[in-house]
Amino acid sequence: MTTLGTRPGTIFGVGLGPGSQDLMSVRADRLIRGATHIAYFRKKGRTGHARTIVEGMLAADAVELPMEYPVTTEIPFDDPRYNAWLAAFYERQVAEIAEIAGAGHDVAVLCEGDPFFYGSFMHLYTRLQGRVAVEVVPGITGMSAAWTATGQPITWGDDVLTVLTATQPEDRLAERIARTDALVVMKIGRHLDKLRRALASAGREGDAWLIEYASMAQQRVVPLAEVGERVPYFSILVIHGNGRRP
Question: Are 152 and 243 contacting, i.e. CB atoms less than 8 angstroms apart?
Fold first, then answer.
């Protein structure tokens, strides 16, 4: 509840970009360094990738608000408990940061990549509407850093670019892959084998590149054919378009 005479704060969803501090926007940098309250998602027992990205940037007296997921990959996302647990989790986080904003403090919520692109912040954003002021600071997406790391343009002329998550059924993946010119696949993880089969079914396996840790110190770019049986969490698959050009 806002105290009489206290001007409510604003909650900022701050896009950090793909993982390197020098790829943040000037606005993101300013907000993070000046923030009195910093919130970020993390897996229980972990520092959290978003928090790691901003190491050395926070004010000495900044209040940190880690938001620990109750579940990540422990159960399938189609298990009824998955949505129920996460919905309750997001409601709790919204209540906490809305209370802080209501007391007159701004809160910067750290978001890997862009806040509106497959980000957890979206679940806070929709629940915060009408409660407090919310602003979003866009960031460079991980996929942009990934295709840039290959040293080749992703789309030419009239190329159609499709962005998929590897969590989808194999037949749907194969259908979409076969119909597109350029391709980005995210959320690969344990779905690598399924994705490989879908690519082979679509006749595109030989065109695929796998980028690990795009823009980070551990960055690695290899043809999919040279990838082993497992890939890191921060992995993105890319197929370049080859469309019209002068």
Answer: no
